Amino acid sequence: MNEAGKEVQPRGRMAAQAASKRRLISRSLQSAQICLQNQDYGTAYAHLLLVLTLAPEQKDALKDMFQYSLFKWAEELYALNRSQDLFNCYEQALELFPRDDVICNSMGEHLFRLGFRDEAAGYFYKALKLNPSSAEAKENFYRVANWLIERWHFIMLNDTKRNLMYQEAIQNAIQNGCKTVLDIGTGTGILSMFAKKAGASYTYACELSKTMYELACEVLTANQMDGQIKLLHMKSHDIQIPEHIPERVSLVVTETVDAGLFGEGIVESLIHAWKNLLLPPKPKDGRVKGYGQVIPSSAVIYGMAVECPEIRRHYSVSVSEVAGIRLGEEVKFCSALHCSHGPDDVTEPYTTEKMSRVPGGYKALSQPFQVMTVDFNSLQALEYIASGTSKRISVPVYQQGQFDCFIAWFLLQLDDEHSLSTGPSEETCWEQAVFPVQKLPDESCYVNTGDTIVVDVSCPDCYLRLDLSTVISESSCDQAENMVMGNESDICDALANLHTTANKDTMQELCILEPGEVALLNNTIYHESFRAAISKVISSLEPKESCSVVRNSQGEQMNLAEPVAENSLHLLDVSEGFSILPLIAVKLGKVKAYSSAEKEQHRVALEKLSVINGLNNEFLEFCLSQLETDDDSLQKPKSDKMWSIIILDVIETCGLIRQDLLEKAAIARCLLQPGGNIFPHAVVMQGMLVESKTLLQEGSVQGTEPTLGFLIAPAINRFKVPVHVFLNLSTVPCIPLSETFELLRLDLMNPYTNNLSSSVMRIKVNICRSGQVTAVPFWYHIHLDEAITLDTSSEASHWKQAAYVLETPMSVLEGEELLLEVQFQNSSISMALTRPLQ
């Protein structure tokens, strides 16, 4: 064969291979399309993966089809619990589309659903970097950032006094001979860097959270200390000598304390450290050269009995009737805090509040009393706390009032010279622990001067707990004074025995509610407004009534018009959590109400309340009891009729518009009968421009000054979230720089009036006071109809408010007109303040 023939043969084989490849691509693409039509998403995904591997030039053309098959197949794999196969599919997809923000975001969503929050954060962050305008990626990243880096990290790092006290105490210890240091729960690594800068020979730090560990690594590198501090990704309980550290250390530093002091595990961590990681403590004669010690060295916990209407309305149902519905005694509404008494309960036995910023303030009913002292340098003292031993304390009442809760705080003694107080009057990064009290049986919680409050103090599972034992009137106290007792605990027991309460004969149905649900039940204005709005719709629609034949005592026939369930108006309430609105509607008459209550406890309570109020249970149904998913709740009623009224839950308790609100409203409109209504009719977001140093400090670390020169802000501020939630705007320290203005209007009945067609809305805002705009607080006016409106910023509101903190504060002058750019997409909001072009 000549040379020309030899060249033709390879070219022929190559041409044949190319043709075969094209046929394979064509057949695979055709098969993928058929599989998609048949909803065989797994096979469709496999075919498309093959096509794009063989023909990468078709990526742009087939991108949408590939994403659709991937996402559908991933949902099936998730439902089948085939997590590894799901992750493999996404890894293959990202090899083909490494810069696709939609695939990155979807991968993050699956990781988050499966509990891999650290990994999810990485994918959300990458998606946001690839497409900064992606509302889905932005919302997901903000959500997971709040999980991974709790907001108190920013507040704590901005607390200059706290940082300085720790730095000086650590410096003193190292100058006095402590040369090897272990930082337990290092967080960003700031305490370790204090130790190294003070001259520690060897510094070790441990951190369990993967996100915080990686953050600390980044911080150490930024401060040129990555080779000087050994960082361990583990719990201190898992540190072994000599595997992880060569020998016992002379100093342990830690700030694993919460508002209740023990809630972050400081007691258990230090018990283990004294037994396994620390040198023996300094003996009383002080003759040992090398010894171990802990910073903080000790603490004193204080408590106080207080009156606080805001705490009361979130933790105690104080109304006996709600818009005509009697609550009765057969159902006992109780907050989750009051029910967390079991040995296996992991719920913290307290909530936390910045008492100086509680709306309406509080009144001290007792002087501060000492709850307990803690010596962190004594293994015996720590083991005593861990044993869960309880004690009883008598607290004199010095000012009369409604007894709502105990509050607790502590004085943290870092060493002999430096201390930090978390008291309610202190400017500190810590909140106070709040222990709401349950109303005593057959008694009011009103106390008078001279009464004695008996409190049980315990530490089950190393959580501080203050429980009300009883309240003894002044006359009972006089009787006790005539007795001879050995100690305070005996006196308290005697006082408690003097107080007797009658046992209730009736069996109470327990219904546990979240704080927001308790506040909602106490919100009289909310329920009265809904009753008025529902009554208007009933009057306008007036269903037909059927007649039933009844005979009187003489046997004469009488016609009585009675509503029959089938002929009634149909109301659907898809409110989140516990809602009494269906009963209010049934009480009005001519309505059959459907509740979307998910918890069995809530359904039982509603049924019992229905009986208490003489309502026919035929007119109350639970629409989720036979449905598989929450989305199925927005369906037609079982009869052929359409809904007369649909109640949507539009605002989350935290102060944000609920996800997918507009989509749910669109479905609801399709299910309404002519003349039917969606409640609310419309939602209007209100806002104002403010200057607030507090909101800035709660959202990001403000440079290197508060962290005493260490570079921490760039690393941790990657996790800052501009939207702050669960705010009480009436007490947030801020200066209004503008009047209130309308940010956004959502008409749920007539969507064509919504101004959401453009991606960015521009609102003109007039400045009424010179200053520096740092944030835009916002709240809502919820229009049930044209005449009835609820304000989520009102004093009685069970909703909190929110604020958007601007990326860069702007200095403004009185009289200026600015433009506020607002973007609303998928229930998430972003804002930017600009000056109009001249």
Spans with pLDDT under 50 lasting ≥5 residues?
482-486, 498-505, 545-562, 625-631
The CATH topology assignment of the largest domain is Hnrnp arginine n-methyltransferase1
Main beta sheet: 7 strands, antiparallel
Q: Which secondary-structure class do the elements indicate?
A: alpha+beta
Taken as a percent bin, the fraction of beta residues is: 15-25%
Q: Give the C-level CATH assignment of the largest domain.
A: Mainly Beta
CATH homologous superfamily of the largest domain, by name? Hnrnp arginine n-methyltransferase1
Total individual domains: 5
Q: Say how many strands there are.
A: 39
Task: Tell me about this structure.
It contains 23 helices and 39 strands. Helix content is 33%, strand content 25%. With 838 residues, it is of the alpha+beta class. The chain folds into five domains: 127 residues, Serine Threonine Protein Phosphatase 5, Tetratricopeptide repeat, CATH 1.25.40; 142 residues, Vaccinia Virus protein VP39 (Rossmann fold, 3-Layer(aba) Sandwich); 213 residues, Hnrnp arginine n-methyltransferase1 (Distorted Sandwich); 103 residues, no CATH class; 153 residues, Distorted Sandwich (Hnrnp arginine n-methyltransferase1). The strands form eleven sheets. Strands 6, 10, 11, 12, 15, 16 and 17 form a seven-stranded antiparallel beta sheet that branches. Strands 29, 31, 33, 35, 36 and 37 form a six-stranded antiparallel beta sheet that branches. A five-stranded parallel beta sheet has the order 3-2-1-4-5, with helices on both faces.
